[in-house]
Automatic annotation (TrEMBL), chain A:
Recorded superkingdom: Eukaryota
Signal peptide: none
Protein name from the UniProt record: Uncharacterized protein
Family annotation (InterPro entries): FAM175 (IPR023238), FAM175_plant (IPR023241)
Gene Ontology terms, MF aspect: polyubiquitin modification-dependent protein binding
Chain segments annotated as transmembrane: none
Organism, scientific name: Turnera subulata
GO cellular component: nucleus
Automatic annotation (TrEMBL), chain B:
Species annotation: Turnera subulata
Localization (cell): Cytoplasm; Nucleus
Protein name: BRISC and BRCA1-A complex member 2
Alphabetical list of InterPro entries matching this protein: BRE
Xref: Pfam families: BRE
Keywords: Apoptosis, Cell cycle, Cell division, Chromatin regulator, Cytoplasm, DNA damage, DNA repair, Mitosis, Nucleus, Repeat, Ubl conjugation pathway
Similarity comment: family membership: Belongs to the BABAM2 family.
Gene Ontology terms: cellular component: BRISC complex; cytoplasm
UniProt GO BP: cell division; chromatin organization; double-strand break repair
Chief site of localization: cytoplasm
Domain of life: Eukaryota
Amino acid sequence: MDDLPLEKIAISGPTLASMMQRLSSSRGDVDGLLFGHVTRITPSTLSDDTSPSFDGPSDSSHLVATVTSFLCPSSSPLSFYDSLGRLNAPSLSRLLPSPSSSAIAADGGSHFLGWLSFRRRSQTRPSMREYSVSHSLSRSSHLSFPVANSETAPVTLTPCIFLLFATPVHDQAIHTHDYRAYQFRLSTTSFEPKPIDIVNIGPAFRGHYESFSPNSAFPMLNCEMRGSSSPMVEEDRSAEEQKQLDLCAEGFDVGDLKRLMGVEATGYTRGLEDLYEKMLVKIDGLARQVESSNAQVIEQEKRIKDLRYKAAARSGAE
Amino acid sequence: MSLDRFPPLISAQLHYLLAHYPDIIKVEHTWSGSKYNSGIHDRFTLLIPYCLDYLKWDVLYNVDSPLAPPDVIFGPDDEDFHPLLGLDGVGDLVLEKSSLCDWNNQDPRRLLALIVELRKKYMAYQRNRVGAVDDDRLKFEISTFGSREVIFRTQFERMLNIPLSCNASYNISLKTPVTLLQGIEMHMSSGFEKPEEVKFAVPLLDMNINKMVLACPWRYPQKIYLQVVYPVTRKYGSAPSAPRLKLMSTPDLKELFSIEDVKLPPWVDGMCMAEYLPPLEELLQRQVVEAVTSIDARRCFIEALVPWFGRPLEADSVFCRKVSFLAASGVFTFLVHFFLGTQFPKQQPVLILQSTQHFNMHGTPVKSTPLSEYPWSPRWEASQMAERMYDFLADESHNFKKYCSEYHLQQ
């Protein structure tokens, strides 16, 4: 677990925009996890002057963290920590991709970099609990990830990044959002403010093309229990999936597709059209099911909201 | 400040805090953090007295998660104050047991317990900061505080009847009326373009002033503090400059005793607080006792007025600072207000006459200017004072009557 200083935190415009959209559409305060990668950047200020002072380990400070995606698990805060800012390991591991998939993601550079907190109408200073959460994350060596392009010995970092979003305490018509980025340093046990670099397209950002690898990760829907992905289980699962697929095909064999070629084809079209029609009906049925269940979800959400405000609006009753 | 815009659970906690906090705590500003329900408030700024000043802390609840524990944002100068982590050095910070541990929003006492706990930790945090300052004089001054604090600590324990160990404090704060530890509070102020200074709030006088006043109406214990501000001097050898001294008291005390009237003894070069404080405390003690006996002198005087003026219309029965009588000179009836100073009888009373028959254009009664120029001697008996005042007023009533009718004609 190394405690190296980051130079800056980069985030692409669309990622930041979708983050803000997610936050500002929420009813109350939100927190979430940040994913991305940390890269060592070779300083591009090379000159013909070969003075030795530029050599040596001084380039260790050129670490850039790039946030590529985020996950806001629920509409209420305290999703992966408790009232004191201690990590809740089971809920955190549920939110993080499982080790097997993170191994794949590691190529795309999707590591757990840190977290974000949004609180409407509050000061843009880390709060008591936010400090504690970042402190806990930075101390979790089992969450550490490697730094890409590290030439020398492999360097790792813990999820030390914290993005703070807030809106002004007093209503202002134009100014709507504040955001700040911090790195939690274990050596000083304090937040260090870091500049945010919004990566965009344009001539001024040409330098980013070398280092920036945009990646739109498929949203993580991984809800399985951890440790259940042994090869045996894997096989079982694929057999299960095949069975479900066969059920959908309703006796239609892949081998039958051969009959599409040659003389048999004309007679076979009918059979294929039948299958196609059946599938359309099935899809239609499914769509209707989804529609009605969505309506139920919305209804339920509305009911929860009403109950909540009923409880909240009994103001002054006590 | 209206507090009825909070949802019931938060409102109950806030009201409990305001009613049971052992000092004057204020809610400065309340607002809502909800997107759709900006009418229901869930955030507020608390003004918490500390070191003769206020700490401004934002407490954030969440109306959309009514059971979630609150969070606190501290002042901009307290970025290094992290009460959820222990104070046990730099290495391995451990999360301490706190009242947030098993938070229950349905228990109205929780916010009070949290604020008391945080303030206590803030005091320890400032103490550590001040202790870390590299200034020989400060180090010496702090080393002499120990003996003073032992006295206050035992007094505090006597009040609560329980020995105070550090880890028991959380339980105390929930089960018994909370009392803040009367220690010497410190504050280190530093910052960009600000001189480094250390401020101490030293509680003076080991006596309970509330108990000395008969039928005492004060809700909070009244205290006198000496505010001492030391500029930090890091250079060795250079003579340290004298600290800035100021006497301060809890606000209600001025009814009994005005600390503005106390002349502070001079601070001689090379002096330390352990030398300075005992004579000051002696002086104050004498003056407070005098102020308390002055209440009796005022009461005697008011009683002596009764045979001459009749029963008072209104009288301050606790501190005897104010009394009003109805008087008449012929058909002209008027009120006489007596205002008695804290240093009565050394200070003679101030009189204001008020007509019951003449009014100005706003409909308020015509009043005389404050009268304090009349024969007076603090050595007279109370009955003689009353008699002399009656004689003076008999004459003065003619002037006042003339003044009233002239005033009336002008309009």
